[in-house]
Amino acid sequence: MNAPDLGKLGFGGAGIGNLYRALPDGEALATVLAAWDAGIRYFDTAPHYGLGLSEQRLGAVLRDKPREEFVISTKVGRLLEPNGPGGRDSEGFDVPATSRRVWDFSEAGIRRSIEESLERLGLSHVDIAYLHDPDVHDLQVGIEHGLPALEKLRSEGLVTAIGVGTNSAEAALECVEAADLDLLMLAGRYTLLEQPDVPLLDRCVERRTGVVNVGVFNSGLLARPDVPDDAHYNYDQAPPEVLERARALASVCRDFGVELPTAALQFPLRHPAVVNVTAGATSPEQVTTNAARMDEPLPDELWEALEGLRKGAGQ
Question: Where is the NADP-dependent oxidoreductase domain (predicted)?
Answer without folding.
Answer: 8-309
